[in-house]
Amino acid sequence: MRTITTKLTRIYLIVAVSVLFCTGLISLLYFYNHVRAIAHDNLNTQAVAMAGNLESPVAFRDVAFAQQTLKALQHYPDVRMAAVVMADGKYFAKYSPDTDTDIDSLQQFPLQGEFITVNTHGVVQDITFPGKTPARLVVVASLEQINRKMVLVVGMSIAIGGLILLVAFIMFRHMSRLVTRPIEDLTAIMRKVERDGDHSQRVRIFSDDEIGELAKGFNAMLSVLERQNTSLNTELDERKSIQRKLDRLAHYDTVTRLPNRHYFQERLLIAVEHNIRLSKLMAVLFVDLDNFKLVNDSYGHHTGDHLLRIAAERLSSSLRAGDVVCRLGGDEFAIILEHLSDSQQIETIVDKLIQNLSQPLRLDDHDVVVTGSVGVAVCPQDADNPESLLRFADAAMYAAKAAGKNTWRRFDPEMASQPALRLSLENQLRVALAERQFEVHYQPQINMNTDAVDGFEALARWNHPDHGYISPLQFIPVAEECGLIRPLGEWVLRTACRQIVAWSLDGHERLKVAVNVSVRQLVHPHFVEQVLAILAETGCAAHQLDLEITESILMQYSDKTFSLLQRLRDHGIGIVIDDFGTGYSSMAQLKNMPVTKLKIDKSFVDDITTSHSDLAITATIASLARNLRIQIIAEGVESNQQVLLLRQSGCHAFQGYHFAQPLLATQIPKFIDGFHHRQQALRSLSADGNVKLAGWEAWLALPARKPGYLNC
């Protein structure tokens, strides 16, 4: 690549040589013509003087004297010939310093006037005398000596010009380097930054001219790029960390750290294809913990989660190195056993697994024994596709429970009738709806900024006349599948609206109620009209109602859901995103959605005291909500430390067993009054100086509440 110095040097050479050549050529031509003119004038002067001297010899026809007069020209070496030519054209006298010169050649020159050629010049002068026709004196001189001297002058001029050009070139080269060096240094730094990506490089500043300003600007730009690059690298590292966390959330269970259902389905598909191709046996084990619900309801979610972690560790330790164990949800686990030699190997593994699970354990000062019921389906003997294998293992697990639990069963074709059990549950659900076996429980939502109960989440509970309370984890999926979730959800919405109106009439006008909405309800073409009709029927104000939808629904039906939710917002109904942070919703979708509140998922709250990543994600969600002017509430709060960390992250509304379990409607007024009186008492004590803590800080100082029901 040509440098600026090279280009400037070429320009200099072209200009300098052109100027020097033109100037020298003009000067030499002028000098040459001037010298020739002087020589010619001198010749003319000599001719005039000699013509005067020849007047008498010519008049008296004295040839000898005329010849002698012409011979005086021998003192002028440039004169080549001279002659006196009479009027009739005959020579009267003639002279030539060179005897070989032909005087007759004078005839080639004009006989009148004067002439000048490249190598010769001549003059013609009249010789006058009275009464006679004048004769003419012709003198011819050589210009060769002048020409030779001129060639010498040209050569010396070229040599002197070249020397001057060389000296000027050296000076120009040095001076141009002073100008172009900063630019070349800047270019070198630019290439190094481009090649190495190192924005810490800086250009040296040599001057305070335009180039110096350019260098300062370039350094300033590098400084900005360096800061931005550092910021981008930091942000990229944070995003990678969060992405790893989100990827783990997508494929791993937050409680047990085991792979989740999504991972299991992907892994099972690969395992089935691989083992069928190699003609190998493989098995799927479906494990359900016995009496887990009893432990969870008796001792709370914290104890239940601890139990799940211990069960996961025992399951993993019972398997071979290459086997895969996953948590499907709740207390259900699935295991993939590959490369089996025979069915006997399955029996050995399952027996060890059941034995390890049934070992007594100590949970929060309680001795607990939790067993497991295991169903087994073998590929390709029982099924050759992932869906059937899992379904058959599930049916075998129910057969193991029916056999008394703490045992295992291999799938048998007769077990395919197990869907009848689900059908029975569906029929019981229909009866429950008709006989009003369902109840609505309300879990308080506390605002720590106002030290007040903001509202409640309405939760459906099935109080079976024979079996007592049935977990929502059991009947909600069935209701979703068979379509009963729509009438059930409509009943919960109507009941909650009536209840909030009743509380408002009792003086609690500022309370709100949040009702969960399933996807089957949301996609119903007349859902908005149904909600508005219920509000009109019950007299509930729109601003007192919040509708909760899960983040996954928001992602799955985003295009259709937007206009529907916007219509609800236009009527003043609040829109709450439940389980936020687990559904991969994008910022662009969230900012365009008419959302009024976000609920931080319990999976983040559970480990916020021990996991820096969960704390960072929670703070990010809170900051995002604050910037979008969206309210935020944390659910599943069970400890003082969680509340403190959540408040530091920017969250001020809470829901969880730390404050209250889901309560019957009849218990709510007493809870509100008790909460209000307690806060007043704490503020009064603080004002008197007896208590140093105020408001929410005093509440946090109280013992944690004992969990009651499953919060679903």
Descriptive account of the structure:
This protein has 712 residues and is of the alpha/beta class. The chain has three domains: 19-150, 2-Layer Sandwich (Beta-Lactamase), CATH 3.30.450; 252-417, Reverse transcriptase/Diguanylate cyclase domain (Alpha-Beta Plaits, 2-Layer Sandwich), CATH 3.30.70.270; 433-701, EAL domain (TIM Barrel). It has 23 helices and 22 strands. The strands form four sheets. Strands 13-14-16-17-18-19-20-21 form an eight-stranded mixed β-barrel, surrounded by four helices. Strands 2-1-5-4-3 form a five-stranded antiparallel β-sheet. Strands 7-8-6-11-12 form a five-stranded mixed β-sheet, sandwiched between helices. Strand 4 and strand 5 (135-142) form a beta hairpin. Helix 1 packs antiparallel against helix 4, helix 4 (144-196) packs parallel to helix 5 (210-251) and helix 13 (485-505) runs parallel beside helix 15. The relative contact order is 0.05.
- Classified by CATH, the class of the largest domain is Alpha Beta
Strand order of the largest sheet: 13-14-16-17-18-19-20-21
Report the average pLDDT across residues.
83
Low-confidence stretches: 689-712
Derived from helix and strand composition plus strand pairing, the structural class reads: alpha/beta
Distance between the termini: 72 Å
Cα-based radius of gyration, to the nearest Å? 56 Å
Predict the CATH topology of the largest domain. TIM Barrel
Shape: rod-shaped
- β-strand percent reads 15-25%
Query: What is the CATH superfamily of the largest domain?
Result: EAL domain
Q: Tell me what the CATH architecture of the largest domain is.
A: Alpha-Beta Barrel
Q: With helices defined by DSSP (H or I, 4 residues minimum), what is the helix count?
A: 23
Largest sheet: 8 strands, mixed, barrel
Number of strands: 22
Q: Tally the structural domains.
A: 3
